[in-house]
Design brief:
Layout lengths: L2 E8 L2 E10 L4 E5 L7 H18 L3 E4 L4 E3 L4 E3 L3
Length: 80
Amino acid sequence: MYYHHLCVSKGTTQVMITCEDIPISDGTAMWLYDLNLDETTFSDLKEGLVEWAEASGMKFRIYTTKRNFETIEKSGRFVP
């Protein structure tokens, strides 16, 4: 698996999101839970990432906690 970062900015806020290629879904995982953002900024960022991923046709998992993620299809819970 490969790790990389996605740099996102809006206004004066800039965030580096850790991402990982995940073979389980043949897509990309984006780790938002450790960014220490306020609730409004977190929600805005998540919505923007979903729109971007859907528009690009990519498969993704946006991790909102260490074990919970959202995808295009539905919310999910990681089971080790």
